[in-house]
Amino acid sequence: MASAPVRGHSVVYAPRIQDLLARGEKVFRIDATTVGVSDCHLIAEIVAERPVSAMERSVYKPAAGADIPHDSATRTIRALGQDVMEGIRTPPPPTRGLSGSWPYAPTSYLRRWLFSSDPLPVSLLSKRGVTRSDTLSRIVDRAVTVWPGSDTEGGTALAEQIRDASGTQERRQAIALYRRATATLCDGVAALAGNALWLMGQEREQEAARADLTAVLWETLRLLPPAWMLFRKGGDAYTGLHPEIRPEDRVALFPLLMHRHPDYWPDPLEFRPERWAGVADPEKTPAFMPFGFEGARCWAKHLVVPLAERLLTVAFDNRLVIRSPQQEAPVPLRSLLSVRFDAEAGA
Ligand code: HEM
């Protein structure tokens, strides 16, 4: 299962991912305190056993020293939804921004497309140069706390959450949520679109292959899911579910492995978007969880595929080509699974 030849294009996984892909068992020990699981039923049971804890959450883990209240969380996701829908309707920035190293080029491109209407200093919250440095991030956070902008300046619905906050604590949390939501969205969608471009191989040059980009994206979410590994801490909640899981263990759930088990998928290593044709609700497909299972399902899943589709359409309309590598692209060990390559728009 390690190397996936896909329509003439293959990927080279980081050695630790390759080791995982070579595992035959669906429940296996990774190290003294980590058990890996790729069994569809056991994953569903683990996810349903208890809600994710505050510290296991990503976007909504505690900020400014306190848990995120449920109503702030729902307001944030609604605001993000408005901003994504607005972005999809808005003309994209100049497409030379898609040239360069993927997935970084499309990450910055999406940030510019969706969030650059925010006034300074708020717009700095989603600048990659800033988000990569903890020190710069802290300085920008302080600046935004003091100057959150005014209603007359316009901008995104997410920025409005910061302006409308009712006190310093709520504002500091709104700033953290702006930063995390924009990063999760832009990093995730860029990774997904890049993985899709690579998996399409030479066929991306053909109109017919681009006819059903939604199916292309669901098949990409199966074969190269950006969220490829999910963690649960505190094995004691799960010891009754499988004898391998001990109280001191953490559990690593692997959609990446589950999505290519021959028990569940015919020709699992083949990139075949056709398998999704006519499937009304792909997430009801057994052994498929690119956005999690019932109990911890992704709140933004309805935004991710349409935005990735729009991004790919812009890339194709502007004749984006992959310059290198020609054959084997690396997939490094990162929390988001993404193929690395260099591309050029308008070629
Ligand atoms: C390509 C982009 C994304 C992918 C592939 C993705 C995938 C996932 C997956 C697999 C889960 C289940 C996690 C688990 O069970 O441990 C999840 C949960 C979740 N996701 Fe996403 N996600 C994406 C983007 C986003 C964005 C942009 C947001 C919000 C700003 C978001 C908010 C959430 C929330 C709130 C949960 C539920 C867990 C919690 O309460 O923290 N996701 N996502």
Describe the 3D structure:
By secondary structure, the chain is α/β, with parallel strands linked by helices. The protein has one domain (10-49, 75-344): Cytochrome p450 (Orthogonal Bundle), CATH 1.10.630.10. The chain has helices spanning 15-21, 40-49, 70-89, 104-115, 128-131, 134-146, 157-163, 168-200, 213-223, 255-258, 301-317; strands spanning 10-13, 27-31, 34-37, 100-102, 230-232, 250-253, 321-324, 328-331, 341-344. Helix 3 crosses helix 8. The protein starts with 9 loop residues before the first strand and ends with a strand. Protoporphyrin IX containing FE is lined by residues 47, 52, 57-60, 77, 80, 181, 184-185, 188-189, 192, 226-227, 230, 290-292, 296, 298-300, 304. Residues 47, 52, 57-60, 77, 80, 181, 184-185, 188-189, 192, 226-227, 230, 290-292, 296, 298-300, 304 line the site of protoporphyrin IX containing FE.
